[in-house]
Design goal:
8 helices; 0% strand; globular
């Protein structure tokens, strides 16, 4: 989400003003990451239940959907192609995991129950970030926008997922992982 709302500014800071349009494309393509996290789980499921043939089959479906989406975007230039690619990812994310998990009873409802709150939080954060970028922070420098948007997006996401949805388990898991890593380092040293 952060790269989506700061992509244009990041590219300008790194490559110069003449690359701004590429930054817009980066911002669009970065949205693919929101749903890619869900779709990527399909491969793990296929392999863990010993069904790589099903992974291959869905890979063919994925290739067809992505190709059609990119072809549909071609008349609209690079922006249309980027939007088509992202839309294809959104369309196949949940069916990908549902297909992979169907032999062991994992369906759309279970997937949305597991990832829906984080997904809604990410989408709301993206919308809020774009709004801030266009209407509140438009007159700031690139570096100012990147810093403020990054901090704002993290705060908005945390407010939605932790505050509104009361989803605290990922924070607890991260805390335990950090604690485990720190205890390992102290026992080595």
């Amino acid at each position: 989400v952060i790269l989506s709302v700061t992509g244009s500014d990041v590219v300008v800071m790194l490559l110069g003003e003449r690359w701004r349009e590429s930054g817009v494309l980066l911002g669009i393509i970065a949205l693919r990451g929101i749903f890619h996290v869900i779709q990527g789980s399909g491969g793990w499921l296929h392999l863990s239940i010993g069904r790589p043939d099903r992974w291959r089959n869905f890979g063919i479906v994925t290739a067809i959907v992505r190709t059609l989406a990119v072809l549909a975007g071609l008349p609209f230039g690079p922006t249309g192609v980027a939007i088509g690619y992202v839309a294809a990812g959104w369309l196949i994310a949940f069916p990908s995991v549902s297909y992979a998990g169907s032999p062991i009873g994992i369906g759309q409802t279970l997937i949305f129950r597991a990832a829906g709150r984080q997904l809604l939080g990410a989408l709301a954060t993206a919308a809020a970030g774009w709004w801030l970028s266009m209407f509140v922070l438009a007159d700031f420098s690139e570096i100012g926008r990147v810093v403020l948007l990054s901090a704002s997006c993290m705060a908005i996401y945390a407010s939605i997922v932790l505050g509104l949805f009361r989803l605290t388990e990922p924070i607890k898991v991260a805390g335990r992982l950090i604690q485990d890593q720190l205890s390992r380092r102290s026992s080595i040293g």
